[in-house]
Amino acid sequence: MAAKRKSKACPALYADRIKRVRAEMEAKKLDGYLVQDRKDQYWLTGFTGEDGYVLVTKKEVALLTDGRFDEAANIQAPWAVKVLREQRTPERTAKELKARRLKRVGFDPDHFTVADFTGTRKAARPVQLIAASGLVLGMRQCKDKGEVDAIVKAIRVSEKAFKKTAKWIKVGMTESDIAAKLAYEMQRLGAKDVSFPTIVAVGPNGALPHYETGDRKVTKNSPILIDWGAEVDWYVSDLTRMIWPGSIPRELAKVNKIVTEAHDAAIAAIKPGVTAHEIDAIARKIITKAGYGSCFNHATGHGMGLDVHEAPRVGKGTNVKLEPGMVITIEPGIYLPGKGGVRLEDDILVTETGSQVLSELPL
Amino acid sequence: MAAKRKSKACPALYADRIKRVRAEMEAKKLDGYLVQDRKDQYWLTGFTGEDGYVLVTKKEVALLTDGRFDEAANIQAPWAVKVLREQRTPERTAKELKARRLKRVGFDPDHFTVADFTGTRKAARPVQLIAASGLVLGMRQCKDKGEVDAIVKAIRVSEKAFKKTAKWIKVGMTESDIAAKLAYEMQRLGAKDVSFPTIVAVGPNGALPHYETGDRKVTKNSPILIDWGAEVDWYVSDLTRMIWPGSIPRELAKVNKIVTEAHDAAIAAIKPGVTAHEIDAIARKIITKAGYGSCFNHATGHGMGLDVHEAPRVGKGTNVKLEPGMVITIEPGIYLPGKGGVRLEDDILVTETGSQVLSELPL
Questions:
Q1: Complex-level ipTM
Q2: Contact assessment for residue B336 and residue B320, using Cβ atoms and an 8 Å cutoff
Q3: Contacts of residue B192 in chain A, CB cutoff 8 Å?
């Protein structure tokens, strides 16, 4: 009855990452670290089950999951210690911590609910739970070659699908029709899913930066704002383009020019050592100077990788310095209530000497 | 520049729900309740912005969100007090609690991270934060007529799309092709999105209850397990069907009969007053008696509404009694590693006198 198993040895990729986590644990005097975020878990072990914790100790890596993901655990991380439990209760988690006689177990307060934490802490005594925010997420900021390749793959899929969809769009189609077609083409090209709900905003709907795609129909002269992404091999893309089916309304043409300028200037400034805040300020200054500062009400960009939104946020107050391997979006926009909006978004890799725009779709 | 706004009066639907929350607040001696879960927020106010809290006090309902969702708040909940803030920091949330001179503010420990909670509690002093688990979610368990209608709409969309897709499937297509087609058809029929990543599992892949759709190809004789759902007007469907393209392997045919029996018996037992645990036991007993107890490693079903997985869980240990208005899935399965699996899933409304199977697709 047994299916074929992969080798029991931990692949070098994961062994290296686990080593880095253990070094952080050592620095924080932790003898255990409980990973709750699913993407963090994937990054550390390759395990993709929906339910589970990864528990890293000095000696072992344990997957706490349930029967639904038994086979997945066997196939994806046969080298890890598998702990199947019927229900995901804090008491059950605590039992594993106590059985290992751990003293100080770290956890990520951004991915642990108050309910889970309170219950686990109580049941795990005398094991102490220590908040260690973003321990794995921090490591995920700089991507290795394999990760960049995966991101590029996701970008290429989304670009090809966009081109196909753009040609297919006709007057009378709804925003939802376009989103459906785009998702379909991405999936046929190898995407597992969209990386977030596609935004297709026709005409005045473009004025809502996070518009929910609806039933507005394409007309001859209404601009179409499309913000979309693909998830391929767990890594994502995130792009925004404008489609101008006919003549461009005058103010939007003006605004399009300003946004293009802000987009280009922000990208040109990307290099190691510059802070995320400075990149944001460059785009913001151009838009503010042109008189549209109050119409640009979100950050210029964000980190991207396994999650669509990762650290660093490219916005006011982010003092993180850019480092080689970071992948960030640059996506300035101007929104004119009742009239529409323009946003242009690309995905950029920070390199040793500057940057490389990973997306290739013309603006 | 201002877009047209809806009336400032709170619609009766939301007024009633907010009244129920205030009654619970009164019972728990709370003068505020902070709603973090997005679906809870939508249920209470109609607001769909990705970022925000809803703060219910004795006198007002405030939406704490950011500039990206300004227009959405204006359109969806113009009757609520809108608080736009640049960043979603605990300090900023605390400021709003203090400004209202609140004393005891409830929150849902299942939807508040340790980081947010710790930060908010510290900055909000002397305001006390009191855990009140599932206060809104509990109210969401029993659906009103409008909600049941929305769920039925989502079910119909997913059923129609399934029929179209089933006809379209050909030998040589991949699991991903099928998932893409199904999503596309659902979206063309009015779905905003799939309600969860579609599972298309060909042949032995069916042995993983939560298989991630991949590249396995349809062959003449491999069964196809499809677990899918649509999201329409924020409410969801969740169904599973088997497609048998050719002759049915002997053991799977046997197993299919057992699962059908378990499925039918569990549904037949649904009525007010029966516990969720009892429903699970009925399905489990049939499968266990047939010798496949260890191959049915998940709960028989779950509540469904705005979320695909809501209370009550229809599994061991859930002593919740079924009540009219609850919508639950019934989805027993048998999984044979290396060979494949069978799962059959329908969506059922608990009525005053018994139950109504909302899904209409033949098994």
A1: 0.84
A2: no
A3: 176, 197, 212-213
